[in-house]
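Lecture notes, unit on protein representations.

Consider one protein chain, 146 amino acids long.
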Amino acid sequence: MDTGNVQNNLYWYLLRTAISAKHDLMRVADKYGISVMQLYTLCLLEDDRSIPMNALSSMLHCDASNLTGIIDRLFTGDYVKREENPKDRRVKMITLTPKGADLCQKIFAELPQRAPSGLNSLSDGQKQQLTELLAQTFEPVSDRLN
């Protein structure tokens, strides 16, 4: 195997970063008594904006029945509320509660402290540029709701 290709492969670096981040997120989730998937779900939700469960399922790349269990546990913890879509009662809409929004703020405040140490070698401008580039690779949540 040509290690030069691996060492200069963007996807490989993204995978390594994701693995490191997942381990850190597991620690954060444990700290707050939730699972990593519950953490992911909470962090996809926006204050005062409901998201259909099927859109969340798509964003998390998980089966709808799996998401139902995740939402059930978040609902029991009073982190989210679940309501019928007034236009289609079959569609369940998920919204952060004040307790869920508070937890998200705590999580997002903690994430920069847990960033991989290599990110500390980047300037603030480089971090901003990297953030903007990565943001371009994801469809905005609002686009998934239309």
